Amino acid sequence: QVQLVESGGGSVQAGGSLRLSCSASRDIHMMACMAWFRQAPGQAREEVAIIDADDKTNYADSVKGRFTISQDKSKNTLYLQMDSLKPEDTGMYYCAADPSAHLYSGGYCATPGATGPRDFGSWGQGTQVTVSS
User: Fold this and answer.
1) Residue 1 pLDDT grade (very low, low, confident, very high; cuts 50, 70, 90)
2) What is the average per-residue pLDDT within 88-101?
3) What Rg, from alpha-carbon coordinates, does the chain have?
4) Secondary structure tally for the chain: helices H, strands E
């Protein structure tokens, strides 16, 4: 398992920006996939963005064009740049990692047609994002 620690959350007005960071306790180049999820009160957890070992990315439709996921493998850190924030982006944001790269075939999480467990077994404690109108 890998320990993950998120930071960078806060309160902003609609239209503002935040950059979330997720620091990992071990080499993230060993991770098949890393992702940001969010959960608003009373709602199910939602996958927001994912980046895989080949640096391919996927985004939820609700954040496409506004959020950017990236990773700095030299710093073992995952990022989520959030621009043009909306009140509906409010929630607790979690980063997660799937270390099972050896179980994938044809690419990783963000590659169409790739097969693998998508087993996000490691989670951070979350960072709160609040967007006011």
Assistant:
1) confident
2) 95
3) 14
4) 0, 11
